[in-house]
Write a structure and sequence with these properties.
Blueprint (H helix, E strand, L loop, with lengths): L2 H11 L10 H11 L2 H7 L1 E4 L6 H8 L5 E3 L3 H15 L7 E4 L12 H5 L4 H17 L4 E2 L23 H16 L11 E5 L18 H17 L4 E4 L3 E2 L2 E2 L4 H11 L5 E3 L4 H8 L5 H10 L5 E2 L3 H11 L5 H17 L12 H7 L3 H14 L1 E5 L12 E5 L7 H4 L14 H9 L4 E5 L15 H9 L3 E7 L20 H10 L4 E6 L7 H5 L3 E4 L7 H10 L65 E3 L3 E2 L3 E3 L3 E10 L5 E11 L10 E10 L4 E9 L5 E2 L5 E2 L3 E8 L6 E8 L1
Parallel strand pairs: 1-2, 1-10, 2-3, 3-4, 5-6, 6-9, 12-13, 12-14, 14-15, 15-16, 19-27
Antiparallel strand pairs: 7-8, 11-16, 17-20, 18-20, 20-23, 21-22, 21-26, 24-25, 26-27
Helix pairs in contact: 2-14, 3-13, 3-14, 7-8, 7-15, 7-16, 8-9, 11-12, 12-13, 16-22, 18-22
This protein binds beta-D-glucopyranose.
């Protein structure tokens, strides 16, 4: 039965295609057989439609030249477009609606880097599920998340979209996000996920977006590929290629990367899409002579979907007829598009995904707000708490809230805020005002002003000091605005923009207890900030519930649990700085008298301000001496490391116990330490518990000289502790 007739029957009778007893596979093959070359190419075309469609866009849909649409326009608009596709195009095939739902759709969660700081896979998964429910209810079936690019350079604005610097933690988070998006609820609550950007985009040189970088295959395999593998193993539906080149070949034309690695080694058989305009970019970069060449190269690399350029739909029919692109490769691409439409339920019930009532009740629901607040609380990292100024004591009666971020709303949402509305965000000032009502009086001063990255608002410092002088305690709220990071948000400087450091220094002079809350999407160099405050809370760009979460943490209602998923530099010249450095012939030795002839600097320390994995709570933990079940491991077996952890502070708190590995002899240089496991442990005041880690032989694998995984017999060290710096060591050997 021809596709349009079949769909018409379904619609008329209100029955699903399964009533025709086709298997899913048959359904796809039957549709494929009914399509012309032009209609096939149309299925591969993804175009942006923002708000009201133009007549030209509607015409493209009627002509079957649009397979998917990007942009969030809500149920009513998407349904109207869907009707045009289903009822007015010859194929009758529905549109797949897609959007960047990166950390929430309407209820906005903290930026992904912040979520990673929770190290809490269940909370991260729940947060992805909230995003999926809301986006799906708003008529979107596919999101361009998770972004899993590992980056070690905070100058790169997109660092906020990833999960930090560690491939192991990033892999676990990639899996949690894919599962949260794709499989947390009923079909109508889940959304197809896209892992991006394959591969190596996070290595952009000097923090400049889209930049070149000559990446070794070793770094690609050790650092950048693992989270993609985790997402693919978790069943991610699609993959987006990177803007950048690998080994001189742009991802969009890189057959080795896409065919050999992605489709071959990683066994990905889902949809591969380009990023925005990356097919014409091949001409700009100078690796394709013209449109036809670019299309052929992208097809050869097995890209199924063309984001926005329309080059596929315009040129593929001719190229197939001329024998320059095989019809089989076109068919395979269409199959992969149809499979996603099928999984989203669109082939059987093209209108069921658009339910205005569901949209109304789901967006910004109380449940979504509370679940988002949970991850927001868990994402914040307490970096310093001198004199135990936090939590704020009940004797504090006047709090001066000072700083250009205190009343910010839009900036709390971050760059990828989908349909998040600034006026629905609880600002930090509002959060504090609500929480401290009846307990302490709040005053406010802006302190300094944002004027791009320029120094502005020096005249505001004096009035702010007067406000602060009249208070018992200062809460300074500083940071960066949302446009300063995100895509295209590279910054050469990593000190807080404008006069914010000067403001903090002047406030500190007043000698009052002082808390500084930092709102940023990336690690800034907080060396001077830390000197000019008692307490320091990294709140990131915390999303809709950010102000409530900050207030609850400052009040002590929530004991901070966040741990840095990325190193905070001491000085910006240290960048890129990351914890899993490899051994060198002249390694830095923290205990040595003279480190001149070592991999270090003469002018600033080699160590960071705050190490990967670091974070405080309002309690303290002590670690006993760890022990190993044996000092040798046999092949195919495991060892158990045990360590007793005690909460020696005065409040219930959560500790993130971290386990690192050092491989002492290998055929290639290996990191001094690399994270291999961790455990979240909540203990009451005075309580202690044994934490056990099973270390299997598989954990000892690394990539050898032939770029293949291997495990060598020999000596290893396990390192356990609260962060990547404060560790106790234990040696063991793997025996053949
Ligand atoms: C970004 C992608 C994003 C796409 C669609 C591109 O510029 O690199 O991450 O998904 O735009 O908005």
């Amino acid at each position: 039965m021809c596709k349009c007739l079949r769909l018409a029957c379904c619609l008329l009778l209100g029955v699903s295609a399964s009533a025709f007893s086709e298997t899913p596979q048959e359904q796809i093959e039957n549709i494929l057989m009914s399509l012309s070359l032009e209609e096939k190419a149309g299925q591969l075309s993804l175009i942006p439609i923002e708000g009201e469609p133009t007549e030209e866009q509607l015409q493209l849909i009627r002509e079957g030249k649009v397979g998917s649409v990007i942009k969030a326009n809500g149920v009513a608009n998407n349904l109207a477009l869907q009707k045009v596709a289903v009822e007015e195009s010859h194929s009758g095939l529905p549109i797949l609606f897609q959007e960047d739902v990166i950390h929430g759709y309407r209820t906005i969660a903290p930026v992904p880097l912040a979520e990673a700081a929770s190290w809490d896979l269940q909370a991260i998964r729940n947060s992805a599920a909230v995003a999926a429910r809301e986006a799906r209810a708003a008529g979107i079936q596919l999101t361009y998340a998770p972004m899993v690019d590992v980056s070690r350079d905070p100058r790169w604005g997109r660092i906020l979209e990833g999960a930090g610097e560690d491939p192991y933690l990033a892999s676990l988070i990639a899996e949690a996000r894919v599962r949260g998006l794709q499989e947390s609820g009923e079909q109508h609550e889940n959304i197809l996920a896209t892992v991006k950007h394959f591969a190596g985009y996070g290595a952009s040189l000097a923090g400049r977006d889209y930049n070149i970088r000559d990446l070794s295959e070793r770094e690609l395999r050790e650092i950048h590929l693992p989270p993609f593998k985790a997402a693919i193993d978790a069943g991610v539906s699609s993959v987006m290629g990177a803007y950048t080149a690998y080994d001189g070949v742009p991802a969009t034309a890189n057959t080795w990367l896409m065919q050999n690695v992605l489709r071959g080694e990683l066994a990905f058989d889902g949809l591969l899409m380009t990023d925005w305009e990356t097919i014409p970019n091949l001409i700009k970069i100078g690796v394709a002579a013209d449109k036809d060449d670019a299309v052929q190269q992208a097809m050869a690399a097995s890209f199924d979907m063309d984001m926005t350029s329309q080059h596929y739909v315009q040129r593929l029919p001719e190229l197939v007829k001329a024998g320059l692109v095989s019809e089989k490769s076109l068919d395979d691409a269409v199959r992969r598009v149809l499979r996603l439409k099928q999984q989203a339920g669109l082939l059987d019930k093209p209108y069921a995904a658009f339910n205005a009532e569901r949209e109304q009740s789901e967006l910004l629901s109380e449940r979504n707000w509370q679940e988002t607040k949970d991850i927001t609380l868990k994402s914040m990292v307490l970096l310093q708490n001198d004199n135990k100024v936090l939590p704020i004591d009940s004797s504090v009666k006047k709090i001066a809230v000072i700083g250009p971020m205190a009343k910010a709303q839009k900036d709390l949402l971050g760059w990828w805020a989908a349909k998040g509305q600034p006026d629905e965000v609880v600002s930090i000032y509002q959060g504090l005002a609500k929480r401290f009502k009846g307990q302490a009086e709040l005053s406010y001063a802006e302190g300094v002003r944002f004027d791009g990255f320029n120094d502005a608002g020096v005249e505001l410092i004096e009035p702010a000091l007067a406000v602060a002088e009249a208070a018992d305690m200062i809460v300074a709220v500083v940071g960066e605005q949302e446009w300063m990071s995100g895509e295209g948000g590279g910054t050469a400087s990593l000190t807080l923009p404008g006069l914010q450091e000067e403001l903090l220094a002047a406030l500190k002079e007043l000698g009052k207890p002082m808390v500084t809350v930092v709102v940023t999407g990336r690690p800034y160099v907080l060396t001077h900030v830390a000197k000019n405050t008692d307490a320091l809370l990294q709140a990131w760009m915390p999303g809709s519930t950010g102000g409530e979460a900050v207030a609850e943490i400052l009040a002590g209602d929530f004991n901070p649990v966040g741990r840095l998923p990325i190193t905070f530099p001491y000085h910006q010249g240290q960048v890129p700085i990351f914890y899993n450095y490899k051994a060198t012939s002249h390694s830095f030795n923290a205990g040595a008298d003279d480190n001149r002839y070592s991999t270090t600097y003469r002018d600033v320390p080699t160590t960071p301000l705050y190490a990967f994995g670091f974070g405080l709570s309002y309690s303290e933990f002590t670690y006993g001496k760890p022990s190993l079940s044996a000092s040798t491991m046999k092949r195919d077996s495991s060892l158990t490391l045990k360590v007793k952890v005690k909460n020696t502070g005065g409040a219930e708190a959560r500790e993130t116990v971290q386990l690192y590995l050092r491989d002492k002899v290998a055929e290639v240089t290996r990191p001094f330490k690399e994270l291999i496991d961790f455990s979240l442990l909540t203990l009451k005041s005075g309580e202690s518990q044994w934490v056990e880690f099973e270390v299997s032989e598989a954990k000892l694998a690394y990539i050898g000289r032939d770029l293949k995984p291997r495990i060598d017999a020999g000596k290893f060290t396990l390192l356990v502790g609260p962060n990547s710096q404060d560790l106790q060591e234990l040696d063991f050997a793997l025996e053949d």
